[in-house]
Protein: ABC transporter ATP-binding protein
Amino acid sequence: MTSSVTQEQPPGRPAGAPQDAVPEEAGVREEEFLYRDASRLQAGSLLTTRTMARRLPALVLRSLRLAWGVDRAATVGLLVCQIATGALAALGLLAVTGTITALVSSGDIAERLWEAAPQLAVIAGATGLRALLGIAVVWLTGRLRPVLARAAELTMVEAALGAELAANNKPGYNDAFDIADRGAQVTPDLVEEAQDVLAAAATLTAGAAVLAVLHPLLLPLLLLACLPQAAAYIRSARVMYLAKVATSGRRRMLSKLRWHMAYQESSEEMRACLAGPFLIGRYRKLADSVNTAEREAANTGARMGLAGALAGGVASAAVWAALLWLLSSGRMSLAAGGGAVFALQTATGSVRGMINGGARLVRTGWYVQDWQNFLDNAHGQAMADSRGSRLLSAVPERFEVRNVTYRYDGAPKDSLSGVSLHVRRGEIVALVGENGSGKSTLSRLLCGLLLPTEGEVAWGHTSTAQLDPWAAWGHVALVPQKFTYLPLTMRDNITFGQGDTGDAALLAACEASGASEMLPHLRSGLNTLLTSEWFGGQQLSGGQWQRLVLTRAFHRQAALLVMDEPTAALDARAEHRIFSGLRELAKDRAVLLITHRLTNVAVADRIVVLDEGRIVQEGTYADLTRTPGLFRSLWELQRRMSGDPA
Ligand SMILES: Nc1ncnc2c1ncn2[C@@H]1O[C@H](COP(=O)(O)OP(=O)(O)OP(=O)(O)O)[C@@H](O)[C@H]1O
Structure:
């Protein structure tokens, strides 16, 4: 065997293979290709401006409803302020136009000034009030924004928790979540932008009224003049949005890379495996490809904006030329012309405001639409849709998988095929098999976390598909292979909010799992914060965390106890404690035990052996160790490795 490490190369980098070299495929670099989601891009590109314009009122209403739900007073206050601001701007515009008309008309200047005085008072009053309203708008926005954004975020989490576990495994789920999350963040923008457009519309209405009175030709000309710019703004907003959708997978990967490179969980491997420099190289490449896509979008957007501005400029010149023509041909008096100039200026400003606001509204609307799609379950599957709401009348005695087949979404083959298994309360069933044989999948089905593709899982006489899942999971205690440890106190990490029945019950569960041994070393016992990320907290070791997760399961008085590799991180004494206490625990529980340590399954009443998603053997420990087959060959291997001559 030859070493691929040479003197010249940094350790870990194979000779002749620069670490940045990646295969090219049809001009797309490998990593860029990996994190693309063509279906999302296609769905995004199908969302046209017209569709969005149709959906906008409903989107704004839904966001307003959310705002109403979180802060009614601020929502109403903002609406009133914005409409009043628009109305005052309109009033001011009418007054200014009237003043100009009065001032440039013929007659004594003192008389003209006297005539204009009430209008001047209106202008002063309206300006002062608008300033006050402006302050109120800033205050109310500051009050509503954070609450609304948090509320929108929470709706996302609730929707995610309410979705089938299977939805989480769907390709593209996380991208959809991320994009929807951005939608949730900009929900307050949608409300504000809608109000801005409303205020601009009020001013425009006044300007339009003035222009229509001065000459009927001016208003349609003005609107026509603004159309090209409006179209350009909206199209460029769409280009930017599509660039964000196209790069969403890569941007999510970038944030994952940042997380792994900077945070504690991966810090050991980043250093010892020299993964840091490699991942920084990967980060740069991905970031380059995202930058290129976003820069291209920005260039296209700028080109569209420029074309719109040029067309708008030509059209504005035409409007002013029309006004000059009206004045020079005597079709409009000079006094009316003065007012028209001001009204045109203001109305143009309002139209621009509306266009800007409208384009921003549409752009934000695209994101908010993603948020609402997520909530409406366009991407995932709400459990409320796929399951019933039946409650169990009694604690089930028997949990059964009947002729079940399961295939994960997007997977090339079934993970389980025609599997049947049952476990009764008071019984321990062990599930064994090689990696990837389907053990965890089967346990997820038995717990009702997944619903079978074919076949049925029944608790007592009720299929898990008919049960209210949240009520049903009250009967499950699960020790998953990849468990969750949160920066909470030990007490909270054990109970997870599931009814703290008092310290005696907690301590008994700690005793059963061996977690009691670490209690004297924790600063505040059960109330110690289990993390070193915050001051005052204490971090546990891997095995200590596993003891805690076992405590979590033992503390729940659940009829079904599922343990997937529950002792992988435990020392020999701790492992012995778990297995010797299991029979006692199984007195009134149905226990499903998954483990690769085959001597441990002697404790089980029955052992079920899985191979490539099918049950290939079933029997007692004594039967299976005597009978030639998969179990015996794996068991013998382990015995030989441990030096057992038998
Ligand atoms: N979330 C998932 N999405 C898609 N496929 C999955 C998922 N989880 C597992 N699989 C696939 O299902 C098959 C069975 O996996 P499972 O985790 O049930 O095996 P296992 O027997 O528990 O393996 P191990 O002993 O390694 O824990 C594997 O081929 C795996 O690739």
In short: The first helix runs from residue 30 to 34. Residues 1-28 have pLDDT under 50 and may be disordered. The domain at 48-375 is CATH 1.20.1560.10 (ABC transporter transmembrane region fold).
